[in-house]
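EI: anyone free to look at a 404-residue chain?
SC: sure, send it
EI:
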Amino acid sequence: MAIVRPFKAIRPTRDKAGLVASRSYLSYSEETLKEKLENNPFTFLHIINPDYKKEKKLKGTNKFIAIREKFNEFKKKNIFITEKKKVFYIYQQKTKNHIYTGIIASTSVDDYINNKIKKHEKTLVKREKMFSKYLSTIGFNAEPVLLFHKKNNIVEHIINLYIEKRSEYEFATTNQAIHKLWIIDDEKDIKAIEKSFEEIDILYIADGHHRSASSTLLSKNNDFRNSQYFMSYLINENQLNIISFNRLIKLKNNLNKKIFLNKIESNFNIVKKDKKNLKPKNKNEISMYFANFWYLLTFKNKLIYSNCIENLDSVILSEHILKPILGIKNEKKDSNIVYEPGNTPLSIISEKVNSGEFDLAFILKPISIKELKEVADNNLIMPPKSTYIEPKLRSGLTIYSFND
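SC: here you go
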């Protein structure tokens, strides 16, 4: 039984929604971030970067306090409004290839603690504590945790009824995505959604492991009115877009092509391909771009694995090529490996190799929803950079206050 509740969001006025909402500030280059801050007085980036004009940058608690003050300044200027009653929100993001439509709601810390909200990534205690202190100081969270769940017909039906109406927000962003938001304020619909989620046993975290863990820590250490819940975006699992992270490798030493391929061949069947950009189609297949050619590597050994992690393509690559042949023992810390999201065109990846920036590249097939759920259901942890999951959500569109 999943506990999913409506809440009173603090959100931008209709005319400013598209100007306020932003990607995570870490995703912007320094140049783009500066351009956004200098040319858009309404962007949420001003709240996250309250000291951008100052020569000496703020740190720690001082910066957190400045963020809270900037947020309050936005509220005083009526850039934000506070919802008058607890509601659900339907958020839709339409990209060139996908449409994501789901419910923004508050989800239960107790469900997280009791493993009804399942995880697949390891969180860092130090980062949890830092972000919990951040939340405690600023008093709000501005980006939902992305959760997925099995399809529920009643929730789908209510969503379909609302998206036929005029949306509260509709705006486009420079990545050519269309964003829309509707408000579910009818009490019967709210109750129906709450009851429908009670029939769903498990929710799964797709993105936002540290946000949910930090919110849980916050609830243990503070008595804020709303800290027993955290803001989430819940979508049907069939809508989730799981993309791989591909690996770009800079070799530590010169590598003899023949010897290298011979070493790989002990565990993989190797087929040289004439195709320009080669993506693996089947499980246990890995594409490799090396010395101006594409190769398809198919794992030979059909072993009996002790757990579902060991059969992931990212683990097979790590255990049979990266560690023993290329000497990359710690993928988190080794500077000779770079991770490129799977939506980066392969032509760009091959050019990075051709230019000499990197020496070779490995292309992985995205894992399936079934594999992701199997890892979470068994309380296991995915290896680093196993998934790049969409949709990527905007900050500042709905804000969850721990006090209001």
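EI: The chain has two domains: 4-242+390-401, 245-365.
SC: 👍
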